[in-house]
């Protein structure tokens, strides 16, 4: 089995490089049947933001997949979801996400809360290894990307995942029209 590759990034077997993964991400990959199919790439943390990374490493914006964390309340209960959408789109937070979570108002989770609860670094939060209480919503367009760049839980690395596997991440719910 060959590792996914992209642009000028050097692909390494993710499970062989735990130093490039946040602890919850490593644990999730070790317990997932497809964990060995993902590659990890070391990057300059100053180039971790999507547009800068795409330019620096010769990647198309359609290869990146951003994971945004949102939340809302219903009947006093906080409902949180991580939304995985292609980097050239935006999660439809005020319509599709709000309806999917069944909340009256939906907004981005405060950075401190997202970092603390996920055990991941800001700018590196990924759909792999999320807290069990969080839902994972994946836009259908991510599944069509041959290889997607997603977070590793750290700003200094990224995971490369065959797009079709994004819908098979444990807990994933594939949502048509999640992004616009």
Automatic annotation (TrEMBL):
Family annotation (InterPro entries): YbaK/aa-tRNA-synt-asso_dom_sf, YbaK/aa-tRNA-synth-assoc-dom
All copies of domain YbaK/aminoacyl-tRNA synthetase-associated, residue ranges: 46-161
UniProt superkingdom: Bacteria
One Pfam family named in its UniProt record: tRNA_edit
Single GO term (MF): aminoacyl-tRNA deacylase activity
The name this protein goes by in its record: YbaK/aminoacyl-tRNA synthetase-associated domain-containing protein
């Amino acid at each position: 089995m060959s590792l996914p590759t992209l642009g000028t990034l050097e692909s390494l077997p993710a499970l062989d490089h735990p130093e490039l993964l946040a602890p919850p991400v490593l644990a999730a990959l070790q317990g997932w049947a497809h964990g060995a199919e993902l590659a990890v790439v070391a990057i300059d943390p100053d180039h971790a933001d999507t547009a800068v990374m795409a330019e620096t490493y010769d990647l198309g914006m359609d290869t990146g997949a951003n994971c945004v964390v949102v939340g809302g309340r219903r009947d006093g209960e906080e409902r949180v979801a991580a939304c995985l959408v292609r980097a050239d789109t935006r999660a439809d937070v005020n319509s599709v996400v709000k309806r999917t979570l069944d909340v009256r108002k939906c907004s981005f989770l405060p950075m401190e809360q997202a970092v603390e609860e996920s055990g991941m670094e800001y700018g590196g939060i990924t759909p792999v290894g999320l807290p069990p209480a969080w839902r994972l919503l994946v836009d259908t367009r991510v599944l069509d990307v041959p290889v997607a760049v997603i977070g590793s839980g750290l700003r200094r690395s990224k995971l490369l995942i065959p797009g079709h596997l994004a819908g098979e991440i444990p807990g994933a719910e594939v949502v048509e029209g999640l992004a616009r």
